[in-house]
Amino acid sequence: MEKSVLKIISFAAVISCASLASCLKEDSLKLPFTTYIPVNLNDGWELSTPAQEGVNEAELQKIYRFYHESSDLWQVRSLLVFRNNKLIAESYTKNPDERSRPVPVWSCTKQIMGILTGIAVEQGFIDDIHDHIQKYLPEEISRHPDKGSITIQNLLQMQSGIAFSNDGFNGESNKLLKEAPSGSLDFILGLPAFSRQGEQFHYNDGDPHIISAILQQQTGKTTGDWAKEVLFSKLGMKNYDWAVYKDGITMGGFGIMATPREMARIGSLALNRGNWNGRRIINPAWIDEMTSVKVPKEKVNTDAVSFGYQWWVDESRDIFFMWGKGGQFVIVKPGKNLIMATTADPNDGNAFELGSALNIFDRIDHITN
Amino acid sequence: MHPPLNRIFAHIIEIRNRGRRQDISMKSEISKNILIAFCALIFLSNHCFAQSKNEIFVDAGFLQVKEELNQSMVYHGLQIGFHYRRNIFFERWELRYKAKAASGIPFDRGMMAVTVHFVPVDFSGLVPVYKNGRHHLKAGLNLAANYSYQTYPEQHSAHLFWYGEIGIAPCMEYGYQWKKSRMRIFLQNSIAGFVSRTREVTPYFYSFEFSDFFTQPHENMKFGSFDKFNHTSAVIECTPNISKGHSFAFGAEYTDCYSGNRFQSLNYYLQWKKAF
After folding, report:
1. Interface pTM, i.e. ipTM
2. CATH architecture of the region A2-22+99-366
3. What pTM does this model have?
4. Lesser CB count within 10 Å: N end or C end of chain B?
5. Mean pLDDT per segment of 10 residues, for chain A of length 369 residues?
């Protein structure tokens, strides 16, 4: 009998091993590279070729091939290159429909808040960025008087001192994503302070959200509606959406969905110091201020880059950039009239982070005369 | 913010919540009735039928899940399951009730997922169709409600992905007995049923209430057959000594839902069973 049992157990073991070899097969996570030639969508972007704009075509093709074929870059979704305000190359690694289908660009929303603040100053909705927020949010500050002396500049520089955490399951960002607090502004202002305002850099989603609330208070419109009027429509942006919290405040720290082509318009606006197709949208002086170092990299302590007014700055590369969670980038190099835009799938374990994006950008920069 | 805007938002939220409350209340009522009917059946089975047998199972398996809404990435890893089965023998046929709960922690590219497989109701009715000496063959029909949940915390925060299935499946069992030992092979394949799948992943806002665990897998259920899903189960079981009640089994369970966003899961497992 024991022999029979042994036979059956052996049989089961053999089946088990054989089964392990029979697995669900993973589909390829990226499409094979075919071409980087952009498609004319009549969306306002002028198209050109790398050669015409002084970019080495053969080398650029190698970069695109690497982008599509590298197994380490399984998260990336798109790579677009613009030179001299013309789209010279684009490719979508997962789905070509994303050429016109918006995707979440997460914290790239913050850089748009930086631009909108400048427009608000120019249009007189904000008198001075050194003003205390108490001036613009008196009702809310009466409930949280300890936050009254925070300035708009503190918010632009992520130096409010409010202990808002972007990270983790219990982080404040996660609570906002779950729409747990009934009022987003009271929730943020009600958090404890971890330092005096203006002293420490603390990257967080709360500070730009307070700016959004101020813009709504001052303009009498949601930040999204006002942005459409003063910025997006002027840039010809159509493929985008902007999430609004349940209390009616447009999200300031994240919340925009857009195509990489649309995001690149913001980069181009910054590159051209507030001009779009020769039309002045915003004061050039604000763009200069916004993209200059306000918080040096030693204080930022993140990937050796500095911070301006909601914009990231890398002085060593002479670039400034938009940066959204998990690989959403618009990197601008004014010295070469060069812009690179990427989108990717965010994840906490194996993301397309700044180092990888800068590596791709450096290679493109290197082949650009 | 302007007061009129406040009022409009509050009104929209109230309408949404009211509809949600009514929906949840109706579903809770149905669930309550099913639970009462089920308890009554178990109670009656103890008192009205002469022969019945209880069995508990523990299994450890190699689970693979493939979720279209997660780029069709394949997560794989360990799943542990616990089952309870009650066999009720009538003169000619046999009714089996089974309940199962299993949980797994599969990985892909160093990222972790958490899966839960829950089968609250699984009835099989079997009748003998062939018997010759040591061999027997039974055939019948299975009715089961399967709920499978997945979360990918590192990719989609707390989003819950689900697959709900209430279906019927023909089943058959071949048994061979020699001396004190027995071997059984059980096969089952779905033929028709209702399936529900996660429809989309919301990009930003997402909230999950405990009741969603029950309500979501019943949302937007679609009836179909092989055009909607396929659920296959195969088990080979060996009982070394029937009088001792211990059994060992190797099984495979494959689920493929192609109604909406495709979901596939495959679990190979080794199982220990104790009858009492």
Report:
1. 0.86
2. 3-Layer(aba) Sandwich (3.40)
3. 0.87
4. C
5. 59 60 85 97 97 98 98 96 98 96 97 98 98 98 97 98 94 95 98 96 98 98 98 97 98 98 98 96 98 96 90 97 97 98 93 96 97
